[in-house]
């Protein structure tokens, strides 16, 4: 294991070695960041049966990493890519397009890749309550991940004022978070969270499915967990 200034190359090498280990091979690999000699995976008392069925998923946000994961999928190394949360369907669609580009580079099948995505949900009968509950989470994320917030349509002046209000402390104090949240409009909350009534939230989640997300991983921001489960219990993506 070597320190990596190139996360793309390091992720590629780790994935190759891990796949070979899970396939039950004795692995020798001398890469730029990963160097091993004659190693094997001892799962339980010398038995490696069934490890070749263990899937590998990488979490990728940027376009270069998405394309690389696609190439690894096209080579049969990884099964899927877990897409980032706090992003709108258009961002997910762009990520999936880059994944497909990488798959095609390796003459792979674009329908074979699994694309789950973390999707935040704020669900209330009163839409205003749903927005108010989601706004602090969105505000904190804008302050901590400004590059992703900008990619989700947050204007520079919004990012700057949120960061100024939050200050340098981590996590931000409740008082600072409340001040910063006052600057975040409903439109920005909508770009980063599925928010509103149960019926509206189901429609918003389906937008992700329509652009290629294979499994929505719903994370509750507000609303009861049991109700969220009941709301989506009969939801079957088409």
What can you tell me about this protein's structure?
- α1 (7-22) runs parallel beside α2 and α4 (127-144) crosses α7.
- It contains ten helices and seven strands.
- β1 and β2 form a beta hairpin.
- The chain has 238 residues and is of the alpha/beta class.
- It has helices at 7-22, 63-74, 89-105, 127-144, 146-151, 156-166, 174-181, 186-192, 198-210, 225-232, and strands spanning 27-30, 35-39, 57-60, 80-83, 116-123, 194-196, 215-222.
- It is globular.
- The strands form three sheets. It has a three-stranded parallel beta sheet with strand order 6-5-7. Strands 1-2 form a two-stranded antiparallel ribbon. A two-stranded parallel ribbon has the order 3-4.
């Amino acid at each position: 294991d070597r320190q990596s200034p190139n996360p793309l190359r390091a992720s590629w090498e780790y994935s190759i070695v891990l796949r070979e280990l899970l396939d039950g091979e004795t692995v020798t690999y001398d890469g730029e960041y990963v160097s091993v000699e004659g190693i094997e995976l001892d799962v339980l008392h010398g038995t490696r049966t069934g490890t070749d069925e263990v899937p590998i998923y990488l979490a990728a946000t940027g376009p270069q990493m998405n394309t690389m994961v696609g190439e690894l999928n096209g080579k049969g190394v990884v099964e899927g890519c877990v897409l980032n949360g706090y992003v709108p369907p258009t961002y997910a669609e762009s990520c999936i397009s880059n994944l497909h580009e990488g798959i095609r580079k390796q003459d792979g099948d674009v329908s074979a890749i699994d694309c789950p995505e973390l999707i935040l949900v704020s669900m209330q009968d009163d839409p205003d309550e749903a927005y108010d509950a989601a706004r602090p989470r969105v505000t904190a994320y804008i302050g901590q991940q400004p590059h992703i917030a900008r990619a989700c349509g947050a204007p520079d002046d919004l990012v700057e004022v949120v960061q100024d209000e939050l200050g340098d402390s981590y996590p931000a104090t409740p008082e600072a978070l409340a001040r910063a949240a006052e600057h975040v409009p409903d439109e920005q909350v909508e770009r980063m969270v599925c928010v509103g009534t149960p019926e509206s939230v189901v429609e918003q989640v389906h937008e992700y499915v329509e652009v290629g997300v294979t499994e929505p991983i719903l994370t509750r921001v507000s609303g009861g967990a049991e109700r969220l489960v009941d709301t989506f219990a009969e939801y079957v993506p088409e």
